[in-house]
Amino acid sequence: xxxxxxxFSKGKKMITKKIFxxxxxxxxxxxxxxxxxxxxxxxxxxxxxxxxxxGPALSIEKVFDRPDWWxxxxxxPHIGTQLSFANHTHxxxxxxxxxxxxxNKFSGELAFGAAIHTGNNEIKSGELGYGxxxxxxxxxxxxxxxxxxQKIQLSAQHMSNGSLCDPNQGLTSVGLRFxxxxx
Length: 183
What we know:
The structure is a single chain. The chain has 183 residues and is mainly beta. It is built from one helix and ten strands, in the order ββαββββββββ. The chain has one helix spanning 17-28; strands at 6-7, 12-13, 37-46, 55-64, 76-84, 91-103, 106-117, 134-145, 150-160, 171-182. The strands form two sheets. An eight-stranded antiparallel β-barrel has the order 3-4-5-6-7-8-9-10. It has a two-stranded antiparallel sheet with strand order 1-2. The longest helix has 12 residues, at 17-28. It starts with 5 loop residues before the first strand and ends with a strand.
């Protein structure tokens, strides 16, 4: 059961059932890009750069095997969400993930795409301003293979508008993720 909490200092709902359900449907939506997929779930520290919107965040992501119609240099498509437990900015994102290296049990990857956020476009007291509703999202992750189908990753992600809108404060999060491959 998912509970709804209230933040009396801001008068806003914490992560609601509705947002959580939408996120789960979005991630586990059976898009038939291919037979295999990798699911990732993790915890991160939100806004490590400025600490205006600090606090823990839950990330859920699905990385698909590259479909035949997807360009061979475009990496693997992914969709995901990051939900702030402190009821700050939540992200819904999609893009491509590229493997940088696989050496013994260690791996590295980059991801790039677009993110839609629930934050403010303008700077407000106690909140970041992102300028645009749709921003760029980048990620770098380093992993350790626990088994052939499971790994742990240390990841850092950043969302900003690349100075296309004003302001451009951006949001940086760092955390740990658990990944498992479904074939």
